[in-house]
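Lab notebook, design round three. We kept the backbone fixed and only want residue identities now. Task for the bench partner: fill in a sequence for the structure below.
Input structure tokens:
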């Protein structure tokens, strides 16, 4: 594996917690220097990608788990290669989400919905199809173009207080602001939350989905740690933070997407509905499991170290036995797994993926080529390493011929296991 370049002005390290400002933020898991997980490389870029420190830390005051090594968002999102609509599981999820939200907004005159980080419009499009006025905000220009091509109005930029003022001035106050799988990407949380409160009309709602820290710990999803994800949320940290900045959390819904997420509902603090039983019970469970205490994360780090060794040993054994192996799925989180376990093309000759935007590119750091799924079907390996393991049911349903032909999938998480 070649040495990667070091960064200069495009990276800095925070010294304080981004939620409460405390200086008592301590690392519990250190990945060393890692390339950007979503930076799939052209052939000419292989070996020239930059690597940045990646350390996962816990605030000992407010219990927010976070990455303090901050790479400029203009670099992270300048050429973003993740399109939500590629995955049928996500399309179905957001169709149902749109239906739920439309029911919640029923009876509101001229509802106006703004989504921060709308990606390719996978949620806004079905909302618009239901007659709801929508506006997207998307920092990646290439992704914003895809959403506009679906007939959506999308602003290309990063949401903040200034942009919220512009939207309010040009479109009016929002009935609802949405942020799905993007609230974890924000370094300056306070200015974004102030912008949300400013944009919402009185009694307006903020609804967002984030990966749930409790499930990350329970299922040992350390592949979800990368520079794009700056925060990893528990309700223990999230509820007080939003309350301090004018948003009252009143409901939460566990959802299975991304192997364990939560959909959080909050209102402007001028309307304070009673918390639901689900919210109260989940907060209680987090307290019982000591989700805010340092020993919880020390034990987690030890399990991660053991897993990385075991994964590499499993692939080494397969190759020594003469078995052919290929990767299935090229999610950004898979690059954390490959980099941490030091798996390059010597152990994994190629990876297949459903997204055409990644064909002919290479994984950052490990430099494994990404090919169309047809390559997997036309030249099936003995074993498929399921890097997109959180979609294992969808993958198994697509690859029945591979399994019938004697092929096996190695699913890396939450524990190493073969499935067929």
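Proposed sequence:
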């Amino acid at each position: 594996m070649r040495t990667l370049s070091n960064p200069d002005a495009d990276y800095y390290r925070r010294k304080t917690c981004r939620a409460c400002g405390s200086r008592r933020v301590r690392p519990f898991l250190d990945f060393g220097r890692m390339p950007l997980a979503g930076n799939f490389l052209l052939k000419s870029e292989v070996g020239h990608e930059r690597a940045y420190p990646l350390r996962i830390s816990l605030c000992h005051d407010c219990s927010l788990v976070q990455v303090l090594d901050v790479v400029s968002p203009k670099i992270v999102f300048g050429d973003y290669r993740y399109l939500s609509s590629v995955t049928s599981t996500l399309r179905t999820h957001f169709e149902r989400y749109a239906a739920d939200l439309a029911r919640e907004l029923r009876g509101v005159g001229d509802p106006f919905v703004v989504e921060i980080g709308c990606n390719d419009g996978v949620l806004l499009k079905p909302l618009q199809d239901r007659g709801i006025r929508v506006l997207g905000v998307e920092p990646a220009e290439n992704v914003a173009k895809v959403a506009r091509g679906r007939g959506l109005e999308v602003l290309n930029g990063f949401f903040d207080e200034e942009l919220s003022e512009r939207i309010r001035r040009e479109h009016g106050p929002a009935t609802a602001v949405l942020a799905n799988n993007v609230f974890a990407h924000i370094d300056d949380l306070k200015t974004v939350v102030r912008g949300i409160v400013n944009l919402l009309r009185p009694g307006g709602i903020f609804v967002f989905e984030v990966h749930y820290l409790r499930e990350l710990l329970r299922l040992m999803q350390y592949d979800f740690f990368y520079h794009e994800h700056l925060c990893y949320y528990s309700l223990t940290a999230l509820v007080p933070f939003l309350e301090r900045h004018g948003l009252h959390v009143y409901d939460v819904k566990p959802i299975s997407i991304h192997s364990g997420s939560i959909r959080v509902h909050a209102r402007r603090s001028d309307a304070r509905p009673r918390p639901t039983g689900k919210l109260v019970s989940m907060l209680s469970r987090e307290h019982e499991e000591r989700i805010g205490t340092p020993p919880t994360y020390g034990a987690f780090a030890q399990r991660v170290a053991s897993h990385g060794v075991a994964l590499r040993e499993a692939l080494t054994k397969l190759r020594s036995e003469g078995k052919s192996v290929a990767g299935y799925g090229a999610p950004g989180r898979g690059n954390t797994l490959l980099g941490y376990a030091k798996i390059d093309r010597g152990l994994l000759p190629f990876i297949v993926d459903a997204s055409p935007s990644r064909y002919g590119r290479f994984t950052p750091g490990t430099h494994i080529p990404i090919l169309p799924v047809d390559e997997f079907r036309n030249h099936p390996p003995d074993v498929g390493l399921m890097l997109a393991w959180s979609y294992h049911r969808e993958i198994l349903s697509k690859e029945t011929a591979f399994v019938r032909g004697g092929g096996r999938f190695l699913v890396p998480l939450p524990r190493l296991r073969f499935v067929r």
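Keep this in mind before ordering anything: The domain at 84-292 is CATH 3.40.50.150 (Rossmann fold).
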